[in-house]
Design goal:
The chain is mostly helical. It is about 70% helix and about 0% strand. The protein folds into two domains: about 60 residues; about 60 residues, no CATH class. The longest helix is centred in the first third of the chain and has 19 residues. The mean pLDDT is about 90.
Length: about 130
């Protein structure tokens, strides 16, 4: 029941932070597989599922660098950047995530759908 509810949350929220939710989806599926294959006892599987569920619901990950604690959007970009560049052993991924957030913030326009200046910029850039 907990696993099913957690998978439902993951499916619903996947678009908001794909790297985060893919990670926990994989972890949850591994725990379920291990239980069905007899590698985990029921109580041990339940504890792991509860832990995963708590992290999904609270959107927390132990692998997030300390520089990004409290920076929700930077954490999301970090997850995407980390997933993309993991095989290249790129360092300073936290800096890249923070720079992405800063650059987007510079160009953010409030009410961009109804703001006439923003509409004019979009029309001129075509």
């Amino acid at each position: 029941m907990i696993a099913s509810a957690t998978l439902h949350v993951i499916e619903q929220e996947m678009a908001k932070d794909p790297a985060f939710y893919k990670k926990f989806s994989r972890l949850l599926k591994k725990v379920i597989e291990a239980y069905h294959e007899g590698r985990l006892q029921a109580l041990e599987a339940l504890e792991k599922i509860k832990d995963i569920s708590t992290k999904v619901v609270t959107h927390t990950d132990d692998n997030i660098p300390s520089e990004l604690i409290g920076e929700d959007m930077a954490q999301r970009y970090y997850g995407c950047v980390n997933e993309t560049f993991a095989e290249y052993k790129v360092k300073k991924l936290t800096d890249i995530a923070i720079q992405i957030v800063d650059r987007i913030a510079k160009h953010k326009i409030r009410d961009w759908r109804t703001n006439q200046d923003a509409i004019n910029k979009r029309l001129c850039s075509r």
